[in-house]
Specification:
alpha/beta, Rossmann fold, 5-stranded parallel beta sheet, 3-stranded parallel beta sheet, 8 helices, elongated
Length: 201
């Protein structure tokens, strides 16, 4: 199934947790919506750790439940698009190899002067930027994007050789959503992108 709705009460909690554990073993990893009135933080944390994607109270109107399920399933089936900008072609090839298994539509760009045309054509869900590039500075590009109504909400992740606090702070000041050192790219980049895209959906 694409999604599962689990109604959890104090009486059926043990059975519900067993069901969630079984669902987590499903190869398709369906979307899981839990309906529960518990306000206990450890219990809600346990649900999330068991694979629950959304938690709603029993008082939620049926129409709202349907909307949440439909929106989430549609987002899951939509091909998420990521644009990566870096002036080093060999690094772009490495990033493509690193991210391809995740199933995202990847567009790589080694000339930042073509970014605006690419954004209009691709309409990405997330942008990965280098900081220092010929003909363009990633920080300045981010600053301009944040001034554009169309791209103000576009998640921007910086991938750079710089690890100093000053550059990182500057990136966040101009509107970055995340900042990753290239030395940690293989470990952190896929998960950071996945987490950001999941929150968007």
């Amino acid at each position: 199934p694409d999604g599962v709705v689990v109604w959890i009460t104090e009486k059926n909690r043990i059975e519900a947790l067993e069901l969630l554990e079984a669902i987590a073993q499903h190869p398709q990893e369906p979307f899981v919506l839990a309906i529960t009135d518990t306000q206990d933080f450890p219990q809600r944390l346990q649900l999330v750790q068991q694979g629950v994607d959304r938690i709603l109270p029993p008082s939620t109107p049926p129409q709202r439940l349907i909307e949440v399920i439909q929106q989430t399933i549609q987002s899951a089936h939509a091909e998420l698009k990521v644009v990566i900008v870096d002036d080093e072609p060999h690094l772009l090839e490495l990033i493509r190899a690193l991210l391809s298994p995740w199933g995202w539509q990847l567009t790589t760009l080694d000339d930042p002067t073509h970014l605006w045309t690419t954004l209009e054509t691709v309409q990405p869900h997330l942008l990965v930027l280098d900081v220092e590039m010929p003909n363009a500075n990633g920080l300045e590009i981010c600053q301009v994007l944040r001034a554009e109504d169309r791209w103000r909400q576009l998640p921007i992740l910086f991938l750079t050789i710089h690890e100093d606090a000053t550059t990182q702070q500057h990136a966040f000041n101009v509107g970055a959503d995340d900042f990753i050192s290239k030395s940690k790219m293989a470990i952190e980049l896929p998960n950071r992108i996945a987490n950001r895209l999941k929150r968007m959906s």
